[in-house]
Q: What sequence folds into this?
């Protein structure tokens, strides 16, 4: 009988932590792959309106962004509080939009151009005047697929 | 030196976990998991200069006029309306099918005309767009439930097209103008 009980020591052995690095590395790779680094610093206020009928924006590589809103607080000294348009990393005027669209198109494959979408991210306090101007410019540039960026409605 | 072992000594891997954790926390912090969502719309192409827009072919009763002024108030078919009533109003108009002689003939002919002032707030505009989209979505869902027994979004592409043909989403936005206070 005592033959079998011999090898069980009295104190419980500690859990081996040897596989801990493996687990951590697995998580690390997951986050490395999913990470999208923000490439533009947003200089306008961006609290987006809420809506319930939203669709997901697919194929991020084919999306160009237009940000509209009043400048963030630290920029207000230089740029005032009036709503402005931001393209890439700089403030822009309405007439810069066709050029921006052309540049965005040139950066993509020719076949993909018809599927390109323009995501318009507008702060909810903005007046429609500037948004209408942007829409008119997009129509002129023949960039007709747009997406009003909104958050999902929380009830 | 007596202390040194004969073979090359192994590198201590105990701190590997710490390094990995450090990197992990860095990526955790920088990750943005948010998916961009929004209301997808298609802008009408710029009208050609020569072609005169001929709206007279569309009967006035088939147009549901929604005006938003600079105080964010709604005027729907010449009556004040709250945003919360718009969905029901639009649904009744689209699905009228000749019941009310003053309203649309059928869903295919029904057009919603949306006009806003330059002073309208974007928030209100999106709310209105959302309500109109919701009206169409609810009508399509109802039709799809009746016809196929599932919601519109769960249908196959082909069947979705069928339903879309019955309830085409026609939201027209007029050329911008100041409609005043």
A:
């Amino acid at each position: 009988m005592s033959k079998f009980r011999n090898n069980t020591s009295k104190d419980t052995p500690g859990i081996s932590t040897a596989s801990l690095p493996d687990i951590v590395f697995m998580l690390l790779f997951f986050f490395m792959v999913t990470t999208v680094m923000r490439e533009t610093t947003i200089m306008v206020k961006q609290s987006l309106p809420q809506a319930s009928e939203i669709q997901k924006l697919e194929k991020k590589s084919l999306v160009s962004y237009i940000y509209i809103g009043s400048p963030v607080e630290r920029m207000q000294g230089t740029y005032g509080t009036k709503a402005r348009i931001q393209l890439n990393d700089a403030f822009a005027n309405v007439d810069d939009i066709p050029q921006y669209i052309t540049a965005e198109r040139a950066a993509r494959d020719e076949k993909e151009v018809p599927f390109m979408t323009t995501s318009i991210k507008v702060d909810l306090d903005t007046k429609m005047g500037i948004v209408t101007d942007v829409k008119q410019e997009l129509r002129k540039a023949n960039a007709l697929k747009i997406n009003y960026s909104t958050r999902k409605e929380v009830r | 030196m007596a202390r040194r072992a004969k073979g090359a000594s192994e590198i201590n891997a105990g701190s590997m976990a710490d390094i990995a954790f450090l990197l992990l926390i860095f990526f955790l912090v920088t990750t943005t998991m948010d998916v961009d969502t929004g209301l997808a719309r298609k802008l009408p192409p710029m009208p050609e200069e020569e072609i005169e827009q001929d709206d007279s072919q569309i009967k006035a009763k088939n147009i549901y006029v929604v005006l938003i002024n600079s105080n964010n108030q709604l005027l729907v078919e010449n009556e004040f309306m709250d945003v919360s009533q718009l969905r029901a109003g639009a649904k009744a108009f689209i699905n009228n099918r000749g019941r009310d002689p003053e309203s649309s003939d059928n869903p295919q002919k029904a057009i919603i005309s949306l006009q806003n002032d330059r002073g309208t707030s974007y928030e209100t505009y999106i709310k209105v767009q959302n309500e109109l989209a919701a009206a169409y979505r609810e009508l399509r869902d109802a039709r799809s439930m009746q016809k196929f027994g599932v919601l519109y979004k769960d249908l196959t592409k082909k069947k979705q097209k069928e339903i879309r043909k019955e309830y085409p989403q026609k939201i027209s936005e007029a050329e911008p103008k100041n409609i005043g206070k």
About this structure: Chain B touches chain A at residues 13, 16-17, 20-21, 23-24, 27-28, 30-33, 35-46, 116-123, 125-127, 129-130, 133-134, 137, 176 (CB under 8 Å). The radius of gyration of chain B is 29 Å. Strands of chain B lie at 37-42, 63-68, 74-76, 79-81, 111-116, 171-173. Chain B has a mean pLDDT of 79.
